[in-house]
Design goal:
- The strands form 2 sheets. Strands 1, 4, 5, 6, 7 and 8 form a 6-stranded mixed beta sheet that branches.
- The two termini are about 15 Å apart.
- The chain is α+β, with helices and mostly antiparallel strands.
- About 25% of the residues lie in helices and about 30% in strands.
- It has 3 helices and 8 strands, in the order βββββααββαβ.
Length: about 140
């Protein structure tokens, strides 16, 4: 529990949901529970439903990269970090920024680090590659 490279309990993956901007997506968080991400296609066309499989892949990859900081666990810190990112048609992840803080710097930095570690998440066969802007809530919960 807590060695370098080990998954820390507390990282959870959520299910899709809707939000302003007309997008649907998947959330990522820290252990059991749910979270919601808003994915808004960059060119404004098409439906988000066709990207559901891609958002699931993105959520899965982020979940694997996410680590609950040991110091935050010891201090009992919980919260939701909202991260904005852009996805190029090549699947390259870029322009990762903190959209809304959890109010805990340790959690904010862990969420940003996990998203930046993704580097590239290629679009699966059958999904039209395009520029996407995504707001992804990352939930840290000690339940």
């Amino acid at each position: 529990m807590g060695g370098a490279g080990e998954a820390e309990p507390g990282a959870r993956a959520g299910q899709g949901g809707s939000g302003s901007g007309g997008g649907l997506g998947s959330g990522v968080g820290a252990r059991q529970g749910s979270a919601v991400a808003l994915a808004v296609p960059g060119d404004g066309g098409g439906g988000a439903a066709e990207y559901a499989g891609y958002f699931e892949l993105l959520r899965s990859r982020l979940h694997a990269a996410l680590r609950y900081p040991t110091a935050a666990r010891r201090r009992g810190l919980t919260g939701t970090v909202h991260v904005d990112l852009e996805i190029a048609p090549t699947g390259a992840i870029g322009n990762v920024v903190l959209a809304r803080s959890s109010s805990h710097r340790l959690l904010d930095e862990a969420a940003l680090e996990a998203v930046r570690a993704l580097d590239r998440v290629p679009f699966p066969a059958g999904v039209r590659p395009r520029h996407l802007r995504v707001r992804l809530p990352v939930v840290f919960d000690l339940r």
